[in-house]
Amino acid sequence: MIKINSVIKRKIDHIVYAVSNLDEAIKVFEKATGISPIFGGYHTTEGTKNALVNLQDGVYLEFIAIDETNLKVPKDRWMGIDLLTKNQVTRFALKSNDLISDSTILKRYNSAMGTKKEGSRHTVTGALLQWELLMPLATPEVELIPFILDWSTSEMHPHDMLPDMNCTLIELYATHPKPESISPFLDQLAYHLRIEKSNIISLRLTLNTPNGIVHL
């Protein structure tokens, strides 16, 4: 029997907004919201780069794009980035202090999931962020089952380095042809995600920004 995580309600760590061009996406977001995402750094082992937005309460939005200068990492990079058909939310991560239990749940959903890996990157100020995570896969383009992060080995969390941007998360929700195939695993991970029935698989984001309500 799968052990249900003892956390009453799991918290989002961050939400991944995959984009084809990081600089252009930052400009579009700034025009729509009045907020300029802050460049975060490079994931050298995954071939991506990012920029971050503070969503308050320990949560951040991560703009992620291919790092064109990194020629060592082939296609089939993480987060669905090589399958991207448009700028959109493709993944989200939950916080954890029990990756072993979480891995069991993820593997039950998809045997390719739940692989533990250590990661790190340097910020633009030179600080080193370190984490342990249950890896997100390269496919599909959009995945409703979250990947999992444990930051307990890091001196800080990316959210802690971000200024207050006057931006808050109203809701992360999803669409899927068969919500009933997803919800039981989210329940086991102690996280509730509203899933609307639709032919399209998607993750949708509603933000309260200085320019008002914005949907991604």
What report would you give on this structure?
By secondary structure, this protein is mostly beta strands. The model is unreliable at 1-8 (pLDDT under 50). It contains 3 helices and 12 strands; from the N terminus they run E-H-E-E-E-E-H-E-E-E-E-H-E-E-E.
Q: Would you summarize the structure shown here?
A:
The chain is mainly beta and about 220 residues long. It has helices at about 20-35, 100-110, 185-190; strands at about 10-20, 40-45, 50-55, 60-65, 90-95, 115-120, 130-135, 145-150, 170-175, 195, 200-210, 210-215.
What proportion strand?
35-45%
Quaternary state, please? single chain
Judged by helices, strands and strand pairing, the structural class is mainly beta
Quote the distance from N terminus to C terminus: 37 Å
The counted number of beta strands is 12
Radius of gyration: 16 Å
| Strand arrangement across the biggest beta sheet | 2-3-4-1-5-8-7-6
Q: What's the tally of helices?
A: 3
Following the backbone from N to C, one meets helices and strands in this order, namely EHEEEEHEEEEHEEE
> How can the largest sheet be summarized?
8 strands, mixed
Poorly predicted ranges: 1-8
Mean pLDDT: 91
The geometry reads as globular
Helix content: 10-25%
